[in-house]
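Q: Entry one of two.
A:
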Amino acid sequence: MASFVDDGLPATRDSWPQGVLDSLEEFTQGDVVACPQLVFHGSPSCPLTQTSQDYALEYEGDMPMQVHADDAPRWALVTSGTCDLAEADAELPLKPFVQVSPIVDMADMDGGKRKLVRQGKINYLLHVPLLSTYAPGFWVADLRYEYPVEKGWLASQERLKGFESERDQEVVGRAVAWLRERPAMGGDFVTLVARPVRTLLGELRVSDREAADRLDQEISEWAVAVDSRLEPRRVEIILLSDGVDPGEATQTWWRDTVDRLREGAGDALVILGPRFERLDQISVRDYRRLTPLAKPHQKFSNE
């Protein structure tokens, strides 16, 4: 039995609607198009968003809910991988849908949070910088919501650039991948390591913004070597820099922080480190033994 996605799918490449696949070759992941009418399935008995709360005023029972036109975003970001759009190298294209995420204006967000979004530290929000050249605002793709559209619809849309260069646009793939692959870590790790680190980083940003920025610049990502992700008893913290060794101030801050983590953990968790490594020097084999955690600000999949 075939999937419903296969029902009616063109049987050959040549039988796709004329011009659709050719038009799709112009699109890439990270392009911007007009936002389609957004629909999601919800329950008025358990409303979680303003849309479902509005439906609850008139309806009962589970149902599809359409985002009101007054709340509908102006644009959407193409989140599907570039190779999945036109399927240019596929003898028979088998993917009729493309995923898009709504882009919203968050100009009212305070300056500190806007900076975090620009730096990619709120993992479900992605700044789309070039859109401010089309309309004033702080335009952000909300990756918490992805919506399928048929490729025939996408092929008919005007394509806008949201990023200055192909290299800049690669942030879209990394952001989508991180949301899917970021590890679930055990409660002890979250409580005794991750959250205290984020708290201390926040305190540093308030007391010494320059030092906090330097810390961000000098540590590309952090990682851990653990005996178990979900039930850790032993954790070693590794700080990874890109191309240069972190400065003495950064290293001192991390050593002091890990000392404080050890004090807070007591006998509940053995915390080792910090160990400083460079991404241009660590072997692939050693890196693969670690659990990469991206930036210390970012949350884990079970938080």
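Q: Entry two of two.
A:
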Amino acid sequence: MEKMLIPFKFLEVVDAVEENIPEGIQLIHAPEVWEEANYGEGIIIAVIDTGIDKTHPDLKDQIIDGKDFTNTGDFQDDHGHGTHVSGTILAAANNAGAIGVAPRARVLALKALRGDGQGDVKWINEAIEYAINWRGPNDEKVSVISMSLGGPEDKEEHQVIQKAVQNNILVVCAAGNNGDGRDDTDEISYPAGYSEVVAVGAVDLQKNLADFSNTNDEIDLVAPGVGIISTYLGGKYAKLSGTSMATPHVSGAAALIKNIEEKNFGRTFTEAELYAQLCIRTEDLGISKKAQGNGLLNLSVNQKSTEKEITITIESKSLQLSPQTFSVQYN
């Protein structure tokens, strides 16, 4: 069985950019919490995608490890999608290029999709299992798995995602790009359709829901996904659109939140607690919950003012942590 990248729109390639904070990262207010979150330092995010440009100036020092599952023997990106996603999550602040949401986090680059954007579900499952068991040189563990890909429902995929969640790994997935601009019709892609994952829809930089963004009851929140500039092959940069681009904003934000709240509480957070804190940091866009879930990711939202408001949403999600409702999705 093959899983295909959910379509995304390729807008343009840029040879070089002066160091800047991309508009999407500004929109979620990431810079406002960078210092408090220590820029995501110490957090490992596994990106399951087409690999990563291992020599890109903004990424080469961010890679803690990687592995290929496509039988090419190398996790070097030969498509561009994985490099773009990784850059949005953690491109370095190095006086050149675009800066990521969590610029001191590290990436475990797992190549499970080929250069044509397709991959066998077996490769995806192996990559998830690898992320669960991976340990770094100082016994680091993966805290977040980010998957911007999509395809049909798969029982084994669902089970291994459930295992990841049980191992306190937050699994963040793109909702899918099959939307029809209406919130009264459901479009579901997997793994985002599984209840256990964080399903991310897309908005534009004016906070309008992207017309391609899937809508359904499993959407957890939305993030910028239209005209997103990030790292690309050959040390370049590209502007892309899709829920694939919204997802890494959330994955990087989870790293920042984990550092902030574990420092505040003085202990390690569970996956459920990290999920709850992520949902708290959202703003209501005044549209259907099927479209926005809890709302637009906003790291500056005051926790105390919103915690009571979304408690029911979080509790409802946690009640669905059973094998029969477990869900996964690719974008």
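A: Comment on entry two: Residues 89 and 248 are 5 Å apart (CA to CA). The chain has one domain: 2-325.
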